[in-house]
Each structure stands twice: as structure tokens, then as C-alpha cells.
Amino acid sequence: MIEISHVDKWYSPTFQVLTDCTTSVTKGEVVVVCGPSGSGKSTLIKCVNALEPFQKGDISVDGTKVNDPKTNLPKLRSRVGMVFQHFELFPHLKIIDNLCLAQQKVLGRSSDKAVAKGMALLDRVGLKEQAQKFPAQLSGGQQQRVAIARALAMDPIVMLFDEPTSALDPEMVSEVLDVMVDLAHEGMTMMVVTHEMGFARKVANRVIFMDRGEIVEDAPKEDFFGKPRSDRAQKFLSKILSH
Amino acid sequence: MFSNFDFGVIIRALPYLFYEGLSFTFMLTALAALGGLVFGTAIALMRLSGYKTLGRIAGFYVDFMRSLPLVLVIFWFYFLVPYIGQWVTGASRPISVGAFASSLITFIMFEAAYFSEIMRAGIQSISRGQPAAANALGLTYAQTMRYVVLPQAFRNMLPVLITQTIVLFQDTSLVYVLSITDFLGAASKVAQRDGRLVEMYLFAAVVYFTISCIASFGVRRLQARIAIIR
User: Fold this and answer.
1) Across the interface, do A92 and B152 touch by the CB < 8 Å criterion?
2) How far apart are the C-alpha atoms of B166 and B208, rounded to whole Å?
3) Beta bridge partners of A214
4) Which residue among A51, A75, A91 sits closest to B138, beta carbon to beta carbon?
5) What are residue B148's DSSP bridge partners?
6) How many cross-chain Cβ pairs, A to B, lie less than 8 Å apart?
7) CA nearest to A136 within chain B
8) Which of A6, A164, A209, B190 could tie A233 with a disulfide, CB 3.0–4.6 Å?
9) Chain B contact set for A91 (CB, 8 A)
């Protein structure tokens, strides 16, 4: 589904953010990307739908090359759902309109169809009653669930999550993770940047550990949590799992 | 000076002042603000487009317009446009544009420079995550601007845009140099005809002052409301 091969990205010759990153995500797989902050994990996931450009290497999604200038990026992105750390709901639109905008403008769905789809998804994330409110009237956890519903409204073939719970109050983390766990159980292909190791343990098939722009470890969940090969991953794990 | 102040002069001139003068001033202000906003937004988008040449052209235009006195531009444009029109259309004589069209075009061009800077600040005030989210959903650049960025930029900048429009409302009085009957022009005509300069110019000042004050008060209330929504 996602093929990342030998991706390099730098802002200047002395400032390398990604170095020779190679990995892949197959259909139905849930891959968790973790690592210390500044390790390039968010940058890598943003390269997948070309929100961040990169200088070397190739990424393709469902056979379409992302870094090909001839690729119709809006069309490709409409099939790749993305959830951001800071939700990024459109504050001037009601919740239901947040869900309908791209359905209508990008997929050309009728207003009725878009609203029906939007309401069904809001129901699914438990926020049907909030449809007529504005994003600022919702809690962080609710906003993030709306953001997931907004991405799902486009019927994506893969979902990217960029630290979806990092900006949330601790008590709201689980409501968002619950939605993501359900999604994983339904067989959605997911690439998730997160520090939530509980989530990784529960649903991930593979864990990728990044440090200083490199993929240090790329292993099945059991191997990663059982016996990480690299020192850096061991140190990282011992630090975040010690409390 | 006030011993023979004649309110009767003002009252008799009211219909003329308001129907002819003030309505024209309002119309010119509204059309110039609308046109200035549209072109100003276009200039702002050019400056932020990331294309260097386009950005430089827009930047030069803004600097150029803001470095000239408005009165000069109005005057200059009025005498120049007929010849530019002649040159463009290849006509044998300078085309006639008319004082109103000429002044409207001037004000739109001039205000576009100021409105563009306001809209540029407004667009830059939107966090980068917003266009990123719109792009991630598959919206094109134009759709992202039209449905996500510009509505928010406009709403954030509305108080400043209205404040600029109040300035424009006062600046429209400069069309007197083209002998157009705006509100001040109408007051001036009556003043000359009746020899009542004190009454008419004082009354004109009171009207400009009142309207601008009410509008400014409205802006302050609007600012408070927008602050709550955010």
C-alpha cells in the first residue's frame, strides 16, 4: 500500500532531517512509528501524502508515485486520510460542514449524500449531537474524533495519524485511542506516529523506531517490545515505559 | 462669527446635500471598498504565492501606490486615462472616461494597495496547519484559499478592513479636485452660492465626524465579538 524507499530530506546541506528511510506498509497493516522528538517521524509521515517535499528517494501509495511531478496530488491525497496533532478542524465551519466540505468539493457528492455520510460517521465516533456546533465549542478529544470522522468521510484507502493524542489532556486520550483501535480492528491500513505504547501493543503489527532521521528499528511488535536489537531503542523504551 | 449663524441655510440645503452628495459619497466608498478588497486580495495572494517574479510585481505595486499622495493619483489618473485608452484601443482621439469612472478606478487601485497588506496579514495569521489539513483532504490550492484560508483571514481582519474603509470614506472627499458633487462638493457648492462658508463647512465636518464615529464604535463592538468566537 505504502512503499517508502531510500528517502532523504534536508533543509540545507548541514541540516539533514531524513536519511535513507526505507519501509513499507501493506494492506490492512497497522504500523506504529515512534522515537524521540526531532527524530523525523512526523516529517516522514507527512512525506507520504506530499505535505512535505523530500529531495531523494521514492514514495508510492497504492502504486502512485507521490514525488512524480505529473501525479495529481489532490486526487491522491483525497484517498489518504490524515489526522493531525492539533486537529486542524476548520474553525469557521460547523462540525457537519467540516465533514462535508471535501466530500462535496473534491468527490463531488451531493449535499444530501455528504450530510448522511457525515452524520453516520459522527454517530460512529459518538458525536452526533454536536453536528451543529462549531469546533471551538468542543473539547480536544471531541475535536480529534471529529477530525478522524472527517478523514474517514473521504473513504480513504489508508489513514495517517501524526501524534493524534499528543495535544490532548490525559483524560481525553483514551476516547481517541478507542476510535483508532476500532478502526484497526476493522482492517483499516494505518500508519501512526505516536508515543502511546499501549496502543502499539494492542493493535500494531509492526513498530518502526526512528532516531535522528534514520529508521533504526523496523520489527514486528513482539520482537520490538520483547527484545529490541539496538541500544537506542532499548534506552528509549526503558525511558518511556519506566513510569 | 457665530452671531449671524444661519441654521436655515443648512436645513434648506439638506435634501440636496443628502440625496445628491452623501448618497454619492456612500456609493463611491462602497464600490471602492469592494473593488479594493477584491484586487487587494488578489495582490496579497500574488505576494504570498511563492513565485518570485509575481511577488515582486505585487510588492512594487503596493510600494508605488503607497508612496504617492492620493490627490496626486486622482488628478494624474484623470488626465492620463483618456490617453492610455486611446493608446490601447488605437482610437484617433483621447477616449472620454468621465470623472466618476476615473475616480472610482483610482480609488480601487489605491485602496487595493492598502487592503492587500491587510489581507496579507490576515492570511499569514492563519496557522500553517489549516491549509495543510485542507490539502490533505484533497482540496486544490484554489479551493483551499476559497473555502478555508480566505474566509478565516477575512473574518480575522474584518475590524481592520472596516477601519480602513472609514479612512476611505473620508478620503473620497478628495474627488472635489475633479469637480464631482460628493457630500463635501455639494456642501461647498451651497456654501459658495449662498455665501455661507462657516455654516456649510461646519455642518459637513459634523456629518463626517458623526458617521465615522458611529462606524468606529461599531468596529470596537465587532472586535469584542470576534474575540469571543475565537
Assistant:
1) yes
2) 10
3) A211
4) A75
5) none
6) 66
7) B230
8) A209
9) 152, 230
Q: How many other CB atoms are there within 10 angstroms of residue B132's CB atom?
A: 19
Residue B110 has pLDDT above 60, yes or no: yes
Nearest to A77 among B130, B136, B147 (CB): B136
Question: Phi, psi at residue B34, to the nearest 5°?
Answer: -65, -50
Taking a C-beta distance cutoff of 8 angstroms, is the pair B151, B229 a contact?
Answer: no
Residues whose CB is less than 8 angstroms from the CB of residue B6 and which lie 6 or more positions away in sequence, other chains included? B196, B199
Report pLDDT digits (tens) over A159-213: 999 999 999 998 899 999 999 999 999 999 999 999 888 899 989 999 999 999 9
Which among A77, A91, A92 has CB closest to B135? A77
Is it the case that residue A135 has pLDDT exceeding 70?
A: yes
Kindly indicate the confidence band of residue B2, based on its pLDDT and cuts at 50, 70 and 90: low
pLDDT at position B1: 58
CA distance A207 to A130: 35
Complex ipTM value:
0.91
CB-nearest partner of B152 from A75, A82, A91: A91
| Residue A229 C-alpha, separation from nearest chain B C-alpha, in angstroms | 35
Contact A154 B147 (CB under 8 A): no
Confidence of residue B191 (pLDDT cuts 50, 70, 90): confident
- The shortest C-alpha distance from B139 to chain A (Å) reads 6
- HSE at residue B217, side-chain half, CA atoms within 13 A, is 6
The pTM score is 0.87
Q: Do A151 and B139 touch (CB under 8 A)?
A: no
Rounded CA-CA distance A153/A175 in Å is 19
R_g over Cα of chain B: 21
| B99-124 vs B23-47: helix crossing angle, rounded to 10 | 50
